[in-house]
Amino acid sequence: MMGRSHLIIGTGVSLSVLQLMGMQVTAPAVTVALIGSLLPDIDEPNSLLVSKALPNSLIRLLQTILLPTAVFVYFYVQAKPWNLLLAILVGLVSFLPSRSLRKVLMFVIGLGLVFYGHAFAPWNLIAGSLLMLCTTLTHRGLTHTVYGTAVWGGLLYSTTHQQGPEIWVAGGIAYAMHLLADSLTNRGIRPFPPLKWRIRANLMSTGTKHGAVVENVCIVLTLILAWIAFSPLFL
Predict the structure, then answer these.
(1) Average pLDDT over the chain, rounded to whole?
(2) Which of 89, 94, 49 is nearest to 67 (CA)?
(3) pLDDT digits over 160-215, tens only?
(4) For the segment 129-153, what is each residue's pLDDT rounded down to a tens digit?
(5) Is residue 145 a contact partner of residue 192, using CB atoms and an 8 Å limit?
(6) Is residue 200 part of a domain?
(7) Which keywords fit this entry according to its UniProt record (predicted)?
(8) Residue 163 lies inside a defined structural domain of this protein
(9) Domain with 157 in it
């Protein structure tokens, strides 16, 4: 399913459930729902979440910087022959396609969180480790499982439960809705690897005309649910 559909369905359903359960729909809850609705696709560098966080303009800027950096390393780093090897490595990275460069950036950001982020918040160590791990995963792998949902929900609960249940409930539901939506596709998901059992309804293929129809139906159903949940506020 396309990122736009995941965003609408995951966020719409999670916030509607909060409203129907009598919980407050706060700005942090909305933010976490938006992130949670797209987060399982962090294992795909060209997904909506990753491409917005690391846009093409940033990738082009990185490519522009890397070549001069390689030249600088070769001529000014006094550690022969390692300076040559490092310069070649940096130069080669600059020619990687945008998908691969996003993976490199994700890994570097994760590495930074592991080594320096814990000074600001202890959870940055876990976040950085997970971010680096995601660069090694295949699409619809570990992040599209019950384990991934549990990790995300557990992180949210442990860091936000003192502020009330709205944040972790919204984030958890949005994440789970992403998996449920992907289970409608022909490929489906494997919720409990290494078990090969898949959940798939074979209703659509992402990017096809029929798939777009199924996605639009799901969006309409989400909007109906949102109307049922929020219309009393305006009547």
Answers:
(1) 90
(2) 94
(3) 888 889 999 999 999 999 999 999 999 999 999 999 999 999 898 888 898 899 99
(4) 888 888 888 878 889 999 999 999 9
(5) yes
(6) yes
(7) Hydrolase, Membrane, Transmembrane, Transmembrane helix
(8) yes
(9) 3-43+137-230
Task: Centre a 10 Å sphere on the Cβ of residue 119 and count the other Cβ atoms it contains.
Answer: 8
Cβ(33)–Cβ(174) below 8 Å: yes
* Structural domain count of the chain: 1
Find out whether the peptide bond into 232 is cis, omega within 30 degrees of 0. Answer: no
Asked if residue 121 is part of any domain, the answer here is no
pLDDT score at 133? 85
Cβ atoms within 10 Å, residue 3: 20
Q: State the DSSP string of 136-199.
A: TSPTTSGGGSHHHHHHHHHHHHHHHGGG-SHHHHHHHHHHHHHHHHHTTBSS-B-SSTTS---B
The model's pTM: 0.85
- Residue 105 tokens read as 């950036």
* Angle at the Cα of 114 from the Cα atoms of 78 and 173, rounded to 5 degrees: 145
